[in-house]
């Protein structure tokens, strides 16, 4: 283990236990496999075992349909690789990879890949293809929908929400406050004496956490700043800071001014109030444990309601943010599948029906989805009749157990238990509600490639690399599936409560007391140290953020203590990547 540099967590795998047991049972004199056997013979045997797992998934594909997920990854040798995964009620499986070095930005070639994958799985089994919003994917999606009228191209919900964050943090005050935070931490982190001093005051806590989702880095950065607000202020007012030679530099003085400035912390709170609910939605659609298709509509509505409530209905403070959210929603996330999922989620449908809050766009989306996914008109008519029983809660739907289960069972599980008297609607509901909203599984696959395609092995031919990832990632996915929670529903209350932790935040940090029970406030302190001067040249800038200065400083925003996790979390995408907000454009 030590000679080969194997990660310590390999001993936690069940296969390691089996390996040790097998060696022990054999006894002395066991001959290890040769290099060729490990590289070829045994590798092929393991591939066949994974093929058997894929066959198990195909049963679900035939019964309820599946989603194809695709995303790009750049290998160490510069090759552009497209990962292909398939998601169904059985979970996700890694299907294959393609070398797209010469075609990654070509819509026609992406369309050819779409067709090849659909034909391999069976066009009758595919419900949707999920990718990011790159222009070649949009173009390929249009061509695919023209060729296969019953299949949707769906933009990745996680990517869309990430882009919302990108758009929001191009606008002031969010752009300027994030830039200040970046520069403060960059100045401190690049000077070991100041960095160690900061860690002393923050109890070894670093300010900027690497983000699992790139564009949300700004929120996570400001969140970590706010959690350490009191300690950071104590830091720059301490004698240890004042006696440090770096603190006497111009940039050091400006750093102290930022951390003392009430307006900086006012803007931090404002950004957190906007970002908190969106982060909750992002984590919901980015998860693999529970299908979020039946919740996205409601989640976005609740996120906006929570943002508005956080500003006590002062539209001026969130009007621009809502414009950004609405544009992304209308252009990318407002999909018939999401509408159908909302209508077929019993926990939301019956409440909306009772409160008469079901919008016409939801009904329009539901019927559009029905017409597209169910080509047989007789079956559509039967589903229409069965929907009447569902809407009136007749038969099994009206049982007290079914009524209680609306809010305590996942929508898929609810339909499996209580939908037997409406078999056509039941099958349609499970098909829609089991769908994924994001291509996050592909992004997490990048790290599997990175783990296997190391510098020492970067000459692996694509077929062997594909086999190694095929084995490794599908085993990981199987473990995740076995640990999943399919019974409990997704709880949306955490979106409503996303900003409750900010309830005690001052309306204006100028009035906040420096010491409890003392009349001295931070407004007085800020005036005394000249904080109202132009900090980093950011005050008075235009409302549209151009992003200058963020790129160079943001590269250092990696937690120095962060090491590669030696468990499944190491395969989460982009955990060491920090966004450059001026480059947040759709390709």
Rg measurement, Å: 27 Å
Strand order of the largest sheet: 3-2-1-4-5
Number of helices: 26
Helix content: 40-55%
- The residue ranges in which pLDDT falls below 50 over 5 or more consecutive positions are 533-587
The shape, in one word, is globular
Q: How would a textbook summarize the main sheet?
A: 5 strands, mixed
Q: Domains counted in the coordinates: how many?
A: 3
| Approximate strand percentage | 5-15%
**Architecture of the largest domain, CATH level 2?**
2-Layer Sandwich
**Would you tell me the overall average pLDDT?**
77
What is the terminal-to-terminal distance?
43 Å
The third-level CATH topology of the largest domain is: Nucleotidyltransferase, domain 5
Q: Report the structural category.
A: alpha/beta
CATH class annotation of the largest domain = Alpha Beta
By DSSP, the count of extended strands is 5
What is the CATH homologous superfamily assignment of the largest domain?
Ribonuclease H-like superfamily/Ribonuclease H
Write the layout of secondary structure elements.
Layout: H1 14-26, H2 35-64, E1 66-74, E2 80-88, E3 91-99, H3 107-121, E4 126-131, H4 135-147, E5 152-155, H5 157-168, H6 174-189, H7 192-201, H8 217-227, H9 229-237, H10 239-243, H11 250-260, H12 262-286, H13 296-310, H14 319-333, H15 336-343, H16 346-355, H17 360-373, H18 377-391, H19 400-405, H20 411-418, H21 423-433, H22 440-452, H23 462-482, H24 493-496, H25 522-528, H26 550-554
Helix pairs in contact: 2-23, 3-4, 5-12, 5-14, 6-8, 6-11, 6-12, 8-12, 9-11, 12-13, 15-17, 18-21, 20-21, 22-23
């Amino acid at each position: 283990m030590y000679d080969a540099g194997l990660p310590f967590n390999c001993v936690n795998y069940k296969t390691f236990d089996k390996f040790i047991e097998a060696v022990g049972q054999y006894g002395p004199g066991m001959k290890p496999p040769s290099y060729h056997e490990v590289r070829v013979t045994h590798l092929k045997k393991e591939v066949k075992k994974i093929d058997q797992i894929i066959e198990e998934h195909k049963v679900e594909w035939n019964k309820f349909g599946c989603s194809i997920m695709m995303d790009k990854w750049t290998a160490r040798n510069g090759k552009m690789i497209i990962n292909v995964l398939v998601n169904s009620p059985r979970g996700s499986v890694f299907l294959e990879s393609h070398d797209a070095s010469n075609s990654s930005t070509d819509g026609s070639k992406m369309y050819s890949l779409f067709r090849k994958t659909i034909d391999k799985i069976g066009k009758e089994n595919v419900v949707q293809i999920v990718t990011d919003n790159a222009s070649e994917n949009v173009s390929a999606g249009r061509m695919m929908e023209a060729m296969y009228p019953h299949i949707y191209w769906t933009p990745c919900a996680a990517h869309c929400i990430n882009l919302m964050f990108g758009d929001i943090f191009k606008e002031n005050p969010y752009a300027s406050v994030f830039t200040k935070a970046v520069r403060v931490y960059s100045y401190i982190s690049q000077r070991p004496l100041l960095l160690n001093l900061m860690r002393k005051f923050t109890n070894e806590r670093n300010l900027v956490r690497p983000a699992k989702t790139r564009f949300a880095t700004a929120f996570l950065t400001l969140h970590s700043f706010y959690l350490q607000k009191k300690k950071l202020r104590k830091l720059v007012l301490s004698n240890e800071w004042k006696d440090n030679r770096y603190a006497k530099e111009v940039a050091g003085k400006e750093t102290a001014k930022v951390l003392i400035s009430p307006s900086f912390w006012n803007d931090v709170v404002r950004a957190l109030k906007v970002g908190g609910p969106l982060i909750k939605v992002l984590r919901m659609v980015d998860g693999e444990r529970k299908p979020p298709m039946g919740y996205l509509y409601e989640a976005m509505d609740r996120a906006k309601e929570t943002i508005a409530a956080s500003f006590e209905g002062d539209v001026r403070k969130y009007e621009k943010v809502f414009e950004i959210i609405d544009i992304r929603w209308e252009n990318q996330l407002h999909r018939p599948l999401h509408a159908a999922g909302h209508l077929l989620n019993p926990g939301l449908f019956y409440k909306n029906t009772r409160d008469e809050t079901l919008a016409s766009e939801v009904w329009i989306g539901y019927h559009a989805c029905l017409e597209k996914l169910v080509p047989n008109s007789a079956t559509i008519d039967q589903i229409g009749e069965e929907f009447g029983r569902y809407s009136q809660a007749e038969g099994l739907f009206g049982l007290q157990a079914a009524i209680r289960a609306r809010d305590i069972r996942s929508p898929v599980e609810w339909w499996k238990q209580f939908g037997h008297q409406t078999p056509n609607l039941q099958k349609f509901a499970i098909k829609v509600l089991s769908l994924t909203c994001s291509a996050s599984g592909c992004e997490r696959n990048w790290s599997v490639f990175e783990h296997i395609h190391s510098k020492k092995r970067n000459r692996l031919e694509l077929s062997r690399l594909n086999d190694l990832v095929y084995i490794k990632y599908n085993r990981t996915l199987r473990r995740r599936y076995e640990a999943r929670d399919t019974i409990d529903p997704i709880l949306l209350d955490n979106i409503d409560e996303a900003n409750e932790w900010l309830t005690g935040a001052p309306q204006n940090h100028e009035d906040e007391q420096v010491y409890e029970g003392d009349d001295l406030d931070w407004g007085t302190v800020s005036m005394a140290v000249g904080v109202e001067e132009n900090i980093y040249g950011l005050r008075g800038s235009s409302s549209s953020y151009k992003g200058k200065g963020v790129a160079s400083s943001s590269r250092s925003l990696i937690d120095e203590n962060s090491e590669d996790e030696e468990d499944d979390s190491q395969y989460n995408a982009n955990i060491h990547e920090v966004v450059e907000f001026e480059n947040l454009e759709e390709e």
